[in-house]
Design goal:
CATH architecture of the largest domain: 2-Layer Sandwich
Order of helices and strands: HEEEEHHEEEEHHHEEEHEHEHHHEH
Number of helices: 12
CATH superfamily of the largest domain: Ribonuclease H-like superfamily/Ribonuclease H
Strand order of the largest sheet: 11-10-9-12-13
Largest sheet: 5 strands, mixed
Length: 380
């Protein structure tokens, strides 16, 4: 009888937690281990946090009865909802096996075109008799797709243009370092136009911060916004000043990329963020967004912007190799944003890239080629 009653109580708590999770605005996510859940009997809220793998709540049910309360069940249910709702978008690896002249699939390998930077396979169409090479996205390029994308991977993982040039020379490919720069600029712009049409499934908690960068020797500031849960780099802009910058454009770009505004926005105490927040995201009509400067929870360390600081360190390590930027409009930072989101696995995401955590799957062993070819195909 006692077992039956305990099962009934547990079930009731689970049901209540599910009901809370389904209500709009009842749960506020601060980070993956810290949530605020509104009290159902008053105007307050309870902090729910994960400590040493166990969920704890400030409510009496959990504090004194030591049971998994409805607020914890609400968090667990909301996390499962987010996992189910994440729509997987696949960017496929393209296997193009048709004649570029007549469209026939009756093609066979015919010969190999030898370039000083590599070999490119040529094909013969049995229907129209014409010969051609399948090189989508890399047409008229002297170097092979593998050479170009290897150079981009090396550059965005931290090598300088000249070091990439030396590496390629060891592979028997001789190119000038300025050629590598042109490859980066060309393909970053191509991918940018394609990827801006793909919306990432980011969470409702975003973070922003700024770090200084040198542009032609002058001090500038890179303002960046990332998603707290997936580490997806949502938006960026380079500003001349820090204290007087108008961050509204950054907010507008981020909302356009994500297709929504966050429920919780975390920054340091820089006033420009709060000014932009008041103008852009403080609205009753489409739901409140809260700007959090500093979060405290009893028994825990101060919840600050450590995730953003780690991200800044990642960008700083790359910027050191570049020894400054040439212009504010440089495609290099945008290219690193693409690398961060789609190529760089993250330990905190169990080895996934931020894009994979957002439900965007890039197929193929060489993700650079997959992105470039899809970008080229969709630009035509």
């Amino acid at each position: 009888m006692l077992v039956s009653m305990a099962t009934q109580i547990t079930t009731t708590r689970e049901e209540r937690g599910e009901a809370i999770a389904k209500l709009e605005g009842q749960i506020k996510r601060i980070d993956e281990d810290f949530y605020l859940v509104k009290s159902q009997s008053g105007n307050g809220e309870y902090a729910v946090t994960k400590v040493d793998g166990e969920w704890l709540c400030q409510c009496p049910d959990n504090q004194y009865r030591k049971v998994k309360c409805k607020h914890i069940h609400a968090i667990l249910f909301s996390k499962s909802i987010r996992a189910e709702v994440a729509v997987s978008r696949i960017i496929p690896e393209l296997n193009i096996h048709s004649c570029q002249y007549c469209g026939s699939e009756s093609i066979v390998k015919d010969s190999v075109r030898h370039n000083k930077s590599g070999d490119i396979q040529r094909y013969l169409c049995k229907k129209c008799g014409k010969r051609f090479s399948i090189n989508l996205g890399f047409e008229k390029m002297k170097a092979t797709p593998h050479t170009i994308t290897s150079a981009m991977q090396l550059y965005f993982t931290g090598e300088s243009y000249r070091n990439v040039q030396k590496f390629l020379k060891l592979q028997g490919v001789t190119v000038d370092h300025s050629t590598i720069l042109r490859w980066v600029k060309k393909y970053v712009r191509l991918m940018e136009n394609y990827l801006e049409k793909i919306k990432p499934n980011v969470s409702d908690t975003w973070r922003a911060d700024e770090l200084f960068v040198k542009v032609k020797g002058d001090m500038k500031y890179l303002f960046a916004m990332i998603d707290d849960e997936t580490r997806y780099w949502i938006a960026q802009e380079v500003a001349d000043t820090k204290q007087t910058h108008n961050a509204q454009k950054l907010f507008q770009m981020a909302q356009k990329v994500a297709g929504k505004k966050p429920r919780t926005f975390i920054t340091d105490g820089l006033q420009v963020y709060h000014d932009a927040y008041l103008r852009e995201w403080l609205s009753i009509e489409d739901g409140w967004s809260e700007h959090v400067h500093k979060i405290m929870f009893e028994g825990r360390d101060n919840h600050n912007n450590n995730k953003m600081e780690r991200f800044n360190g990642e960008v700083r390590d790359r910027e050191k190799v570049m020894r400054g930027l040439k212009t504010k409009e440089t495609p290099i930072l945008l290219g690193y944003q693409i690398f961060h989101n789609f190529m760089r696995p993250h330990e905190a995401l169990d080895g996934k890239t931020p894009s994979e955590a957002c439900g965007i799957q890039v197929e193929g062993k060489n993700k650079w080629i997959t992105l470039i070819q899809n970008a080229k195909q969709n630009s035509e």
